[in-house]
Amino acid sequence: MHSYVKKADAIGTMKLIILNDYDQVGEWAAKYIRNKILRFNPGPGRFFTLGLPTGGTPLGCYKKLIEFYKEGELSFQYVKTFNMDEYVGIPRNHPESYHSFMWNNFFKHIDIKSENTHILDGNAADLVQECDSFEEKIKAAGGIDLFVGGIGPDGHIAFNEPGSSLLSRTRVKTLAQDTILANARFFDGDMAKVPTMALTVGVATVMDAREVMILITGAHKAFALYKAIEEGVNHMWTVSAFQQHPQTVFVCDEDATLELRVKTVKYFKGMMHVHNKLVEPLASK
Amino acid sequence: MPSNKSVSDAPITQFVNCRILREHKLQREDLWVREGKILDPEKLFFDEKGSADQRVDCKGHIIAPGFIDVQINGGYGIDFSQATDYVKGGVSLVAKKILEHGVTSFLPTLVTSPPDIYHKVLPKVQVQSGGMQGAGVLGFHLEGPFISLEKKGAHPEEYLRSFLSDGMSDLIETYGTLDNVAMVTLAPELPNSQTVVRELTQRGITVSLGHSVANLSQAENAVQHGASFITHLFNAMLPFHHRDPGIVGLLTSDQVPQSRTVFYGMIADGIHTNPAALRIAHRAHPKGLVLVTDAIAAMGLPPGRHTLGQQVIEIQGLHAYVAGTKTLCGSIATMDMCVRHFKQASGCTVEESLEAASLHPAQLLGISHAKGVLDYGADADLVLLDDSLSIRATYIAGQEVWRK
Q: Which among B42, B43, B376 is the top mutation candidate for probing chain A, defined by the most A β-carbons within 10 Å of its own β-carbon?
């Protein structure tokens, strides 16, 4: 690898990766995570710590990571994971719970150990205590090396919906009416069954990570991407907080760039030949 | 968060690289087993923080629930209805041998016999779980002697009986005991049979209709009293007639209560049932089809002449003839062969063919919470098959009991 790439990777500059479509976003993100883990060279007593999202956007990335594991390129034996959020009050084995999501779409396919995975317990007797201890666990794990996230059309990261403090930590959050409505389709269309609260990491919890990667796909997220990177830091678009993070990479598809300036898109597309080196297979194994 | 780590320290086996039959579909899933039962790995992962102690690579093969044969008269030279002195050993021998056909539980079946045979044989064989020693015995299937003279088939005429005033006392007098009895085949047109059907059903014994000249309304009446099975459909019953379809009509009857399913046994060996008849039954009532071998003592014996009891038989290919004739003397089908033939003849899916030998008989016997399924908590009685549906290995309670 050329030295300037290493430098680009290290200095405090936001990266915007623009790819053709959803599949390429998942693949690029998975390769990036793979390379991060491999370069870290985890082992006994040396764990790579990964923050993880749920939802449709990261699915393609999980599929690719599973492929890398099955092909023997990657092991999760010495990886610790922390999930962003979980609903309050639905059974852990409910098909829409984030426990179920992580189990079915990722954990059951790889060699990660149960004790190294962490998902907030939305059925804990004391929810505040559960949130506080989650922060403690992240600290005890030495902080998060790479936090991967997605965003909502309103620019929320995890369940930090518009108006969330950019200094927020892990806490109980009442869901926005929009989110509840959007979720109704997963709960037999019955509003009474849709969870109205969730536990979520705060914006500051994610900000603490050494590196943040946000995946954004689809035209419906285009405005949120514009607000995230071309306007100022704003608590109504919580993802914009990462403008102040020294190491953030946004990975998006063409559709998600619809609201961006041509200049912005051209600038980052011009950087792709450099950024793509970050996901090339590592030579030494 | 409550920890369930104390649930069990027993070793956990994870079958990987397999397609498992669950919820009527072959699914690319691993199968987890602990203490002989199928385990929910998600619960294990999140609640117990547990993981597998041992992995079994299934090399892409299919895992289905172990097969259940509800009608098998013997095999390997043993006739359950004859071997009065050696019956326990005989059942054990067959139980061991049929593991290679994927059968993990069965009902040893006795054809019409004199009371003293029942009195001697029934107490000697207990309901028992399967294991290394062989397939599990779920109880006896008593086919006769309360059947029709006109449709006696190969059953000896002199021992046929009917129900006198109080049907149950005749039944008890004949059989001696109903312990270890799982199924009784009777002819519902016999007077007083209704009381018997009701009483047997209440005792948890499955009543099957067969060797009978019953018309459809008699058959429906028996079903309304609790009967739930038809013994070897088409064989030993009135042929289908459009104005009175007889017992066969139960497959599409509207008099069967909504919550109930009538099941029917099929000898799908390509010899005892014409493939077209098999297809008619399957298309009319796919959820009720139960594959049975109805195998006789000659099953499992090599080609050539054998003396079985008073009879000399000759085995040629898949046929067993009375020696020197072309008269069939019974089925020598094995369960795995029936599964393959059924799939090929009916054009059904792999899933349907496997469920006809596992899920359906388990539902029939009312044990589908534990057997015939790969649901969490069910017994880990498994059969490993390749894509041609040949048996590669058989497991009972998670333990390998046979391998090719």
A: B42
Cβ distance A103 to B46 less than 8 Å, yes or no, reads yes
**pLDDT digits over A5-60, tens only?**
555 555 678 999 999 999 999 999 999 999 999 999 999 999 999 999 998 999 99
List pLDDT tens digits, range B11-39: 999 999 999 999 999 999 999 999 999 99
ipTM: 0.88
- CB-closest option in A103, A121, A124 to B45: A103
CA neighbor of A221 nearest in space, from A168, A153, A155: A153
C-alpha Rg value of chain A to the nearest Å = 18
Length of chain B: 404
Nearest Cα to Cα of residue B371 among B232, B182, B231 = B182
**CB pair distance less than 8 Å for A114 and B46:** yes
CA pair distance B369, B347, nearest whole angstrom: 28
Contact B42/A121, CB-based, under 8 Å? no
Same fold, B5-64+373-403 and B66-364: no
Extents of the domains making up chain B: 5-64+373-403, 66-364
pLDDT tens over chain A, length 285 residues: 455 555 555 567 899 999 999 999 999 999 999 999 999 999 999 999 999 999 899 999 999 999 999 999 999 999 999 999 999 999 999 999 999 999 999 999 999 999 999 999 999 999 999 999 999 999 999 999 999 999 989 999 999 999 999 999 999 999 888 888 888 888 888 888 899 999 999 999 999 999 999 999 999 999 999 999 999 999 999 999 999 999 999 999 999 999 999 999 999 999 999 999 999 998 754
> What part of A 68-87 touches B (C-beta under 8 Å)?
none
CB contact under 8 A, B49 and A121: no
What is the maximal distance between C-alpha atoms in chain A? 57
Widest CA span in chain B: 75
| Residue B48 labeled ligand binder | no
Give the integer Cα–Cα distance in Å for B212 and A92.
54
Partner B contacted by A223 (CB < 8 A): no
**B180, B221 Cβ separation under 8 angstroms:** no
Topology of domain B5-64+373-403 in CATH is: Urease, subunit C; domain 1 (2.30.40)
Residue B260 annotated in ligand binding: no
The CATH number fitting domain A47-275, selected from 1.10.10.10, 3.40.50.1360, 3.40.47.10, 3.10.290.10: 3.40.50.1360
Q: Are the C-beta atoms of residues A48 and A81 closer than 8 Å to each other?
A: no
**CATH level 2 (architecture), domain B66-364:** Alpha-Beta Barrel (3.20)
- Chain B residues in contact with A111 by the CB 8 A cut-off are none
Instruction: Find tokens 């979720």 and name the residue.
Output: A183
B46·A92 Cβ contact <8 A: yes
Q: Residue B93: phi, psi to the nearest 5?
A: -65, -50
CA distance to partner chain B, nearest, from residue A77 (Å): 12
3-state secondary structure of A26: helix
Tokens at B134, concatenated: 């062989």
